[in-house]
Structure prediction request, 681 residues.
Amino acid sequence: MVGHGYIQSVTNQAAQAVSESKVSGSAPDRRAIVQIQGVSKLFDDSVAVNNLTLDIYEGEFFSLLGPSGCGKTTTLRMLGGFEEPTSGRILLGGKDVTYLAPYHRDVNTVFQSYALFPHLNIFENVAFGLRRRHIAKSDVARRVGEILEIVDLPGFEKRRASQLSGGQQQRVALARALINEPTLLLLDEPMSALDAKLRHQMQIELKRIQTQVGITFLYVTHDQEEAMTMSDRLAVMRHGVIEGIGSPKDIYDSPTTEFVATFLGASNLLEGQVTESTEATTTVRVAGGAVITLPTERLPRGLSGSPVKVGVRPEKISLIASGVEVGRRNSLRGRVLVSTFTGVGNQYIIELPDETRITVYAQNIGDDTAPRSGEEAILAWPVEHTFAVVPMAGASIEAESES
Amino acid sequence: MSLSASEIAAKRMKKRHFGRMVLPTYSWLVIAYLVFPIAVMIVYSFNKVHAGLQMVSFAWNGATLQWYHQWSNLPGLTASFWLSIKLGIVSTLIATVLGTLLAIALVRYRPPQFRGKTIVEQVLFTNIAAPEIVMGASLLGVFVTYNIARGFLTLVLAHVMFSVAYVTVTVRARLAGFDRALEEAAYDLGAKPMSTFRLVTLPLIMPGVLAGALMAFALSIDDFVTSNFVSGTNAPFPVYIYGATRVGTPPQVFVFGTAIFVVGIGLAIASLFLTKKD
Prediction:
């Protein structure tokens, strides 16, 4: 039920500029239900969230993605009313809620630990919010029944939380929050306690429920696969700022920073210098001397003169036999270092002459010409699948994506 | 000579079996040692007494239920017993409320909001460790100096004073494992702080609060040292008994003692079931 029309690729360099310049202006047909305006949060001397500006639209499934300590949970807690921003404003449905207590905001939360009340049965857990609003008894019973139906736990009213499995507890936590029909539902890494298989099921389930109830979801996670599977839009956070924002496809296909390119999926990145930039295409000379072409729209603004890293996703690269016409594609020559059969495909690690290593995924489509370890290979990929990112300052990536 | 494999095994089993018996047997011996005076009390509460002299003697004169029938024949003893019960209930209620709030403060707050927290903790510890006789004597000094008439009020003040720390320690242990997200969840669902305390926090720390209350009551009901200093003309049960035994123990004392023991056992079993449910 949520369209993607308002989503645009993000092309500017500075993270703050990303959120300020692009997001709000791009959706005239959508109402920003949550407006985070220049919010910072300091704990003692450390900055958890740094001048964050972000709009979340009515009815969308939005994810905040990032490694631990990136400020995503602090942002969620400020929206829930559990932390007060050090500066900035938070608007909910146009109303300033920056300093409003959690019990006065129209926001509900699914906690990481679920936080189900152990002394109450499932019915009383789910009915807790309605009871606080003095809803008539008969309505409470009906609505609890309905919501338990939606989360696929009919007839569980009399049980206790401790008698339920992790997945079931999570559904109860979801039902307990959703029954209040909040303007915004916050989900704080709700799947981190589930095993991989159940997590996958719950992702699909959660997306179905969100579509069914039409409530705006803000989902916080460090799992990039989870964020991509469910989100209409997502923001990648690092060190308290948003480094990239947009639809999963846009962020995946044209990441703007090295961190986003490596945290969200895998990327091959080559250091280089922009040599020429026209309206349509830009060329970058990489360390080994080769020249790589990319669409200019995939070059973060303001990078034309400075060092960049050009990138390509491992699945976009084809290995071609020497002598075959490369055409308009980018190409590099290397030697196969490792070739691993993974069932659905082959994973190669190719070493370039300057010892840079490139990862390639080739789908298993019955092609027997796969090169073996030690053989020469030519890597080729279309210009339009090439992007450039802002190199990360010095430090390596502290958290790898999990999948 | 040689033993068959099965014989060796049997011997080993026997040895091992004996080894396994040592500690359990030892435990029962310790228990017997502990229970002995109580058993004597219970048994002799059924003992007949020589006519005329209504005092406990430890010569067995035959069984009787006489003292159970005449349990309230000594007005002073009965009055002191009810005074102790009343004192126990009142001081337990006060100490439980004070101690629970103190425990919450100690677990939830730290400097700078809670300045001098470590001092508060030290004082609590001192309160538990301090010899009762010192506390009793100094309290008496205070009451006399400020001309406060000794009676029920002074007893309550004193009993609350020595039981608060125990309640705090017990409730605090329970609070230490408390998931704060549960309170946040309650806020999140629209419950204000007072409702959250009533609907979520209190029910969850209740086992700790009850255990603390039970301890406070147990401390109050058999306190002698402090009570002896601060009681007025109406002495609570232990103080009365102390006075009575100097002339000779009336058999009713054993009846009351037995009754208290039975109730105590009952409470202990009840608390066992209460905490097991968790």
